Amino acid sequence: MKSGKYVTLSANRSSVTTHWYVVDATEQVVGRMASRLASLLRGKHKVDFTPHVPCGDKIVVLNADKIQWTGKKEENKQYISHTGYPGGQRVTTPAEIRQKDPTLILRRSVRGMLPKNKLRDLLLKNLFIYTGSEHPHDAQAPQSLTF
Description:
- The structure is a single chain.
- The protein is α/β, with parallel strands linked by helices.
- The chain has helices at about 30-40, 75, 95-100, 105-115, 120-125; strands at about 20-25, 60, 80, 90, 125-130, 145.
- The strands form 2 sheets. The chain has a 4-stranded parallel β-sheet with strand order 5-2-1-6, with helices on one face. The protein has a two-stranded antiparallel ribbon with strand order 3-4.
- Helix 1 (about 30-40) links the parallel strand 1 and strand 2.
- Helix 1 (about 30-40) crosses helix 4 (about 105-115).
- It is globular, with a radius of gyration of 18 Å.
- The mean pLDDT is about 95.
């Protein structure tokens, strides 16, 4: 230890403790829930938060198909992507995405709120999203978390 009164401790992968949480997405607003999930995945609620270390928790989200938008965003909001070829611009709405894969809406919004570096993919591996109220993570004894 250094001499002096105060010592700053940085977390590393071996000193981080992770917990499992279960969140119910029924009637939750997409953006507000995504920002809370991103903060938990990042570990900003912990005392030993270190920006360059994945020190967040593992989160299981249930009932992702029952998540809600405010206003008329489900019909009016547009996700624009491009294939890279001439005339390859594609436009989809959240209503179209919900029909194909309801978990993609929440995963995409959480992904946009995480840091744009190599940590993003590591943190997204700790997010488990399911459409029903059943999940295969009972052996980890996740704690219930409400927003």
